[in-house]
Design brief:
Strand content: 35-45%
Helix content: 10-25%
Number of helices: 5
Structural class: mainly beta
Distance between the termini: 104 Å
Largest sheet: 7 strands, mixed
Radius of gyration: 32 Å
């Protein structure tokens, strides 16, 4: 086998590379940086990209100040998209960009910092988007502002609030797809992905020992959805005269269930929008003006009384259960029972109980599935009536629901089928 000196091999490699470069020169093509695409160099332009991270402001007394958060441009990832939305260049860090040379065309720059989570503490997500046009042999200066892109909810409590309640309160917040619970003394800041829902339930105990719940829909004013830096201040309503309700057994005392005033501020870098105060009354697990417990009610009939089913009315009997969950449903199951063995055997073949958020194929042919986060559920079992009349006896549908707060409720629908034939 013939051997060649090393310098001979190197010389051959150089000749080969020169030939490749000569080929590029003869064809007039050049490779686009970051890809294998070859284009006429006269059709390339350059994007001179700059990022403009904009810090959020916080409220201190009656003024605002910039947060202490550090926003370094090199912490931002960058994508370059073409006019069809396809990613043509991608960088884990702005610092990785040496030159953005691209074929002439329309592009969009997308810069982001952090991870957009459904709900998490201390998890801001910043994002900037900017469209631009690249012209041949020109430099396009592009500045992309990067701003907070998820909901930051800051909670503050007045001294009067602290004086009235024990320091064991919880605030359960949800956007319908994630839930966060802030305990008394929580120093972390909640962040939520923007959805069509943002509300919270305050669970507290007065210093007189009474447990009380307060519910607030932060989207009660639609403007809140359009802003991401949301400040919530909770205070006790001060009546013009002391409230002295009667105490069972005689005498008077201080009100044990005060009204809560909720003030919402939408903080922008240049200004603050004050939302009119929301006055919320409290309730407990048994009742009250503000119920957090899911409600389960018959539509036009008393759910605590059995529905009497006969051959004459089975076809036209409508049985609908209306379920309301202020914070949205997280779980719903329906367990069917019957005194008729034949009916129970059929139900077992279909699958019992019914997990309404995850129906199997046979169950979904009978009932409509429920979606997580639904606040209103119409549970319609009217289609079962003509079937049930063929199985005389007592049939029960026990409905159990959990809301996003972890609050539970259940009720049982009873059907008495009387076959008169």
């Amino acid at each position: 086998m013939k051997k060649y000196p090393l310098y001979t091999l190197l010389a051959g490699l150089l000749v080969l590379l020169a030939a490749c470069e000569m080929k590029d020169d003869l064809t007039g093509k050049t490779k686009v940086p970051g890809s294998n695409q070859e284009v006429d160099p006269n059709q390339l332009g350059v994007i001179n990209l700059k990022l403009d991270p904009q810090k959020e402001k916080s409220v201190v007394g009656n003024t605002t100040k910039a947060t202490d958060e550090e926003l370094d441009v090199n912490d931002f990832a960058v994508q370059v998209l073409d006019e069809d939305g396809k990613v043509v260049n991608e960088y884990d860090s702005f610092a990785d960009i040496e030159e953005l040379r691209l074929p002439a065309g329309n592009y969009q720059i997308v810069a982001s910092k952090g991870e957009l989570k459904n709900a998490a503490f201390d998890a801001p997500y910043y994002k900037g988007e900017e469209k631009c046009v690249v012209n041949p042999l020109e430099v396009a200066d592009v500045v992309t502002p990067c701003v907070l892109d998820n909901k930051k909810v800051s909670l503050f409590f007045s001294e009067e609030f602290a004086d009235y309640f024990l320091d064991d309160y919880d605030i359960v917040m949800t956007n319908g797809i994630g839930v966060l619970t802030a305990h008394a003394g929580e120093n972390r800041t909640p962040y939520f992905k923007t959805t069509d829902q943002l509300d919270f339930t305050l669970r507290a105990t007065t210093k007189n020992g009474e447990d009380v719940n307060y519910y607030c829909d932060l989207y009660n004013d639609p403007k809140v959805k359009d802003y991401n830096n949301v400040v919530v201040a909770l205070d006790i309503v001060k009546p013009s005269e002391p409230e002295v309700p009667d105490i069972p057994g005689g005498g008077t005392g201080e009100a044990e269930r005060p009204l809560i005033k909720i003030d919402v501020s939408l903080v922008e870098r240049e200004y603050v929008i004050e939302i009119p105060s929301n006055i919320v009354s409290g309730g407990d697990e048994e009742g009250g003006d503000t119920l957090t417990k899911p409600s389960i009610e018959g539509d036009g009939f008393d759910l605590d009384k059995p529905v009497i089913l006969t051959s004459a009315n089975a076809k036209d009997t409508k049985v609908v259960i209306n379920i309301e969950l202020p914070t949205g449903v997280s779980a719903m199951k329906v367990n069917i029972n019957s005194t008729d063995a034949g009916f129970m055997s059929a139900v077992a073949d279909i699958g019992n109980p019914f997990d309404m958020l995850h129906l199997n194929d046979m169950q979904s042919g009978l009932l409509d599935a429920v979606k997580a986060g639904q606040k209103t559920i119409r549970f319609d079992v009217s289609s079962f009536m003509e079937l049930l009349i063929n199985f005389p006896g007592t049939h029960t549908f026990t409905i159990a629901v959990d809301d996003r707060n972890g609050t539970k409720n259940s009720k049982t629908l009873t059907i008495k089928a009387i076959n008169e034939e």
